[in-house]
Amino acid sequence: MTATDITRSISSAAPRTIAAVRGRIVSIRIEPRDAAPQLTARIDDGTGRMDVVFMGRREIPGVEPGAMMSVEGRVSDAEDLPRIFNPQYTL
Questions:
Q1: 3 pLDDT exceeds 60?
Q2: Which domains does the chain have, with CATH numbers?
């Protein structure tokens, strides 16, 4: 990881780079019980939105709409929004 890989805004998060962003959780999606466990939090920092996906989890204490969240991880090239899978995070 280099200093140029770290970003501050969601709108400037480029695919396949390491990004560190902070935003408000605007929605949560949890996969149904008959699917593999996965929790997706959508965060918004005012410049854009990003999906943060936690594989193997259906619940994380404190991860709820309205909470502020900082995440860091590799940005995935997704169809509609950038995504980070299993990021390091703080609330």
A1: no
A2: 3-90 (2.40.50.140)
